[in-house]
Each structure stands twice: as structure tokens, then as C-alpha cells.
Amino acid sequence: MSLMSKLSATILLSSLSLFAATDAEVTSFLKKQIGGNKSVSNLQVEVTNRAPVKDMKGWDSVIVSLTAHVKQGKQERDIEQMMTYFVHGDYITKELNNVKTGAALSSSVAPKFDKSFYNKENLAFGNASAKHKIAIFSDPLCPFCRKFVPEAIKYMKKYPNDFAVYYYHFPLPALHPAAVTMTKAAIAAEQKGMNKVLEMYTVEINPRETNEQKILDAFNKTTGASISMMDINSAAVEKQFKQDKHIAAKVMVQGTPTMFFDGVKDASKNKYKEVKVK
Predict the structure, then answer these.
(1) What is the C-alpha separation between 254 and 262, in angstroms, rounded?
(2) Is 49 exposed, middle or buried (CB count within 10 Å of its CB: 0-12, 13-18, 19+)?
């Protein structure tokens, strides 16, 4: 759990305050509560999205952008984070769970995918002017991704006027350290004019591997590329890598694969199958 998550969770569990939960008052409440922590400074809070919670009359989900300067022991850093809250009348809480299924409602809440995030660097397949825009965030070593993502992309790739597929690299280093190097190799290949998105899902490497040269060798052997250590450490690759992470943070991507269909998070990941293709 992030520091900001810990701070806000503690605040809301310890004082479920009564107030009229307008956007302005949600903002004021969080500024007062989180800003009261001496380790937090330069706090900025903004409500970016608000929507009714399906099948829960009177409840709204509120997505909040939080930025702050935080001190942790001897370390200091700037943080930027999107958080989800739920409000009902005068009450606010960090999470709502279904007591029968255990499902957390926050997992189904996401900001809309801003038009500015559809970058030409991320257009992997299809035409930018296609009828539907699909955004995919994926880790090439995620077991489910390795089965699902290539299958979905291969289908949509056949209909370039129906689907514009935008791909965002989102490796999960805590689970698959090797995915970071592989992702940077794929970005380097893209910048050399070689689209290796689909091929990297067939690279055989231990997800826990940390030897970058060994990972590169496996990537190059499988994809036919010739990416070097110098390539993956270039400023251009690092910039694209960070940009994909930044976009993922803005739309609250936490796991893989995550898909957006025409700007809206697709929890089913199957809306593309409902399109009547030509």
C-alpha cells in the first residue's frame, strides 16, 4: 500500500466525518485531514471524476487527484496519485465491499481515458481514425496476458478500420522483474521502426530473471531484433517508458491486462467482440 493510501485509509477509518459531500467539501475535508500530517506538505487535492455507483442508490464514486511532498525518515519525495472514495449524503469512505462476493467496488471505478493519451507512439495496430479506440495496458510476462492479449490483438488487427489498438507497456516488476528489460527492449525496437509487441509475448524467459543481457538475448533471438544494452538505456526509451507509466497512473491502472474501450474501462475485456466488424 502506498504512503498516501495509508494516510487516507487511517484518516477515514479513524474519523468518518459528517458533512455535505459536495466536490468542494470532499476536497476541503481531505486537505484538512491529510494536510494535518506533519510529513506532508504542498498538498494539492482535486476531484477529477464523479459518478453514481451502479445498483447503490445515493452513493457516488469520487476520483481524486492528490499531489504532495512527503518526508519518510531521511527521505523526501514528490508523489502524484489518483484515489477513489465513495460518498453518500454526509458520509465518505475509502472502500465499499460486497459482503456476499467480497468484491471491492473500487476495482470497477476508473477515470475516463483522456483523448490526449492516444499518442501516435502507442498506436500499435489499426488506423488512428478507426471507429473504436482500444487501450491495452499489459505486462508481457503476466501469465493471463500472454494468453489473452495476443489473441485479442490478432483479432482486432484484422479490422484496422474498426479498431485502433493503443498499447501501453505496464510491467509489474515486483512479480516479473524480467518484464522491465523486455518492455524497454520492445520500446527500443518500436523506436527503430520494428513493432515487436506480439512477438515479445512468445519470448521464453524466467519472469524472475534479473540478468539484463540474458533477457535481451532471449528477446533478440525470439523477435529477430538486435537490441543492445545501450538501446534500452537511451533517454528516448526511458522517456517512453515513463510516459506509459504516467498514463497508467492517471487512469488508475493497477493490474494487467487492463483495457479501455472508447475511453471507458472495460472490466469484461470483451467489448471488442461485440463490435459488428466490416
Answers:
(1) 19
(2) middle
User: Which of the listed residues 76, 108, 140 is the one where a domain comes to its end?
Assistant: 108
**Domain boundary residue among 55, 82, 108?**
108
User: How many C-beta atoms surround the C-beta of residue 57 within 10 A?
Assistant: 7
Phi, psi of 115 (to 5 degrees): -60, -30
Mapping DSSP onto H, E and C, the string for 10-27 reads HHHHHCCCCCCCCHHHHH
Find where cell 494516510 sits: 7
Q: Could you list the residue range(s) of the whole structural domain that residue 212 is in?
A: 115-274
Q: What is the pLDDT of residues 104-141, one digit of tens each?
A: 888 778 888 999 999 999 999 999 999 999 999 999 99
Segment 31-50, tens digit of pLDDT? 998 988 889 999 999 998 88
How distant is the alpha carbon of residue 69 from its chain centre? 22
Question: 193-214 as b/e, with b when 16 or more CB fall inside 10 Å?
Answer: ebebbbbbbebebebebeebee
Closest residue by Cα to residue 16 from 118, 93, 107 = 93
- Gap between the Cα atoms of 220 and 188, Å rounded: 12
* Grid cell for residue 98: 460486497
* Residue 133 shares a structural domain with residue 257: yes
Given a contact cutoff of 8 angstroms between Cβ atoms, the answer to whether 130 and 164 are in contact is yes
Judge whether 77 and 70 are in contact, CB under 8 Å. yes
Q: How far is the C-alpha of 146 from the C-alpha of 200, rounded, in Å? A: 9
Report residue 163: phi and psi, to 5°. -130, 130
Distance CA 145, CA 152 (A): 10
